[in-house]
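Here is an idea for our session: we take a single protein and study its fold together. Once you have written the record down, we can walk along the chain together.
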Amino acid sequence: MGVFIWLIAALVLACGELAIGDFTLLMLAGGALAAAGVSLAHVPTWVEVIVFGVTSIGMTFSLRPMLRKRLLTAPTLDTSVQALVGATVPVIETVDRHGGQIRLDGSIWSARSRDPSETFAVGDIVNVISIDGTTAVIWKAQ
């Protein structure tokens, strides 16, 4: 019977977490699940309560800060030209060691081949290896 009480408590706490969003009730729900697991071994009620308390406190001080940090840290938006490195793009004008053009990030970029002996025809799909000033250095897509 104790297992069901702990499972219901875990469910109620997890649902309460949806309303609050602070991860505190979620840690308590984790403690209730741990107590439910221990309860399956038919231990005394005081052992279940101690497992609930220790697990809840442990999760609150170890797991909760990591979760909050991950949730509250905004992803950084890289708007530099280095963010374009690694893109797979089409060739729109034949590219050789002297130049050519590709469509990169919705605009037309000048490009040159990384290998001076390599030429890329219109329609070929290539990878941007690096950005050299205003020129994309490309190589064949894998």
